[in-house]
Amino acid sequence: MDVTITVNGTERKLELDPRVTLLDALRHELGLTGTKKGCDHGQCGACTILVNGRRINSCLALAASHDGDEITTIEGLGTPENMHPLQTAFVTHDGYQCGYCTPGQIMSAEAMLREAAEGWPSYVSKTLDADPTLTDEEIAERMSGNLCRCSAYPRIREAIAAVRD
Ligand code: FES
Questions:
Q1: In the chain, fewer beta carbons within 10 Å around the N or the C end?
Q2: How many domains does the chain have?
Q3: Which of residues 43, 76, 109 is at a domain's end?
Q4: pLDDT(126) > 60
Q5: Ligand 1 pocket: which residues have CB below 6 Å?
Q6: pLDDT level of residue 121 (50, 70, 90 thresholds)
Q7: Roughly how many angstroms between the first and final C-alpha of the chain, as a whole number?
Q8: How far apart are CA 76 and CA 120, in angstroms?
Q9: Does the global pTM surpass 0.90?
């Protein structure tokens, strides 16, 4: 089937099997391998991307169901010459070890910081403080969908907090 998506600002027309996930379409059809496949069933967050500004696990989404959507991957956030503030902060604060989860961590953090700035969408947990100012505890809670098998969590949180501040 034909699927048209806008990826990092460029419209891409794809002919896909309807069973192809958004993650596989990005990696295999478009060569955007910055988005990682960890668990491939929605548990690790390595495949996090933004769809219309909201974060999703792209391994759980069928590409065909995102026809017409606007997608941002880690490749669309910054470049080695012109890094996004989160990318710079992860380097400065040593917010990674093996680096495999890093793209997903950064995409998730970007979505979280945008949500905090714009006001939390209704699907976000009501158990957390409704105040859009992110505390360190809220960063930890709101990033809990992104796992790091090297356990670099303290430095990941430090990097995000540095951008928040
Ligand atoms: Fe998608 Fe793990 S690869 S959540």
A1: C
A2: 2
A3: 76
A4: no
A5: 37-40, 42-47, 57, 59
A6: confident
A7: 45
A8: 23
A9: yes
Residue 152 Cα to ligand 1 midpoint, Å, equals 18
pLDDT in tens, 127-136: 665 555 788 9
Is the pLDDT score of 123 beyond 60?
Answer: yes
Atom of ligand 1 nearest to the CA of 43: 4
CATH code of 38's domain: 3.10.20.30
Q: Tell me what ipTM this predicted complex has.
A: 0.98
Residue numbers of the domain that contains 66: 2-76
Residue 6, phi then psi, degrees to nearest 5? -100, 120
The verdict on 98 and 47 lying in the same domain is: no
pLDDT at residue 159, as a whole number: 97
Instruction: Report the nearest atom of ligand 1 relative to the CA of 45.
Output: 4
11 token code pair: 């419209």
Tokens, residue 38? 């960890």
* Angle value at C-alpha 101, between 55 and 148, nearest 5 degrees: 105
